[in-house]
Amino acid sequence: MYRKLKIVVVLPAYNAASTLEKTYREIPFDIVDDVVLVDDASTDQTPEKAEALGIRHIILHDKNKGYGANQKTCYKTALKLNADIIIMLHPDYQYTPKLIPAMVSIIAEGLYPVVLGSRILGNGAKKGGMPVYKYIANRLLTFTQNLLIGHKLSEYHTGYRAFSKQVFDHIDIWGNSNDFVFDNQMLSQIIYADIPIAEVTCPTKYFKEASSINFARSTQYGLGVLKVSMMHFMQRTGLAKFKLYEKVQSGNN
């Protein structure tokens, strides 16, 4: 625990058997109370590896439901475990768990209810070997999103995020996409709810075993991101209303 707050790390896993142990061993269990791993019907030995590591909460999807669906199960389980702070961490060892104490402290000290690990701040993406086309796409998408959404983040596409449990009282993620665009829909809802967001510099690693979507899926994701950003723009300017924001409630302190 940290300041008597329960800390739960959630791992949305798919074919992470080769990297799971490295990720798990770096989790700071002096403050982390529980780890939840949700396996989205991996074709490798991810569930067996998780069990061998002693992960207490392992949930298996009977079929591949998608990255967004995986996260929904992660958050639902963490909230059932009465988590006060939830950290979403990819188990592919692209992001270091060593940043968890910093992210947790920002939330626990009441500074910000949402913290993102940014690969762009401090040039973490370039140093970590992010492919050039991914870096360019990231920067172009983020620039466009900041214009349309009316916000200012260095990156909307990180897979390293921490949330206060209260965030889930103000947004409704359960109707969001089951695919990769889920991440951006959730951020869009958080921003629309006027919930403050902090970013911390995050080193990253790109290597053969690290998960990554191919060019076709990346293109599909990019188009989905632009669609969400346009919806956000139209919603905030009163040009249209969308179901995505129907149950969003202001969370500005």
Mean pLDDT, as a whole number?
A: 92
Instruction: Please state the second-level CATH architecture.
Output: Alpha-Beta Complex
Biggest beta sheet attributes: 7 strands, mixed
Helicity range of the residues?
25-40%
Number of strands: 7
Characterise the protein shown here:
The chain has helices spanning 20-25, 46-53, 67-80, 100-108, 124-127, 132-149, 182-192, 215-236; strands spanning 7-13, 34-39, 57-60, 85-89, 114-118, 160-164, 197-201. It is α/β, with parallel strands linked by helices. The chain has one domain (7-240): Alpha-Beta Complex (Spore Coat Polysaccharide Biosynthesis Protein SpsA, Chain A), CATH 3.90.550.10. Strands 3-2-1-4-6-5-7 form a seven-stranded mixed sheet, sandwiched between helices. The longest helix has 22 residues, at 215-236. The relative contact order is 0.16.
Output the keywords.
Spore Coat Polysaccharide Biosynthesis Protein SpsA, Chain A; 253 residues; 7-stranded mixed β-sheet
Question: What's a concise summary of this model?
Answer:
The protein has 253 residues and is α/β, with parallel strands linked by helices. 36% of the residues lie in helices and 15% in strands. A seven-stranded mixed sheet has the order 3-2-1-4-6-5-7, sandwiched between helices.
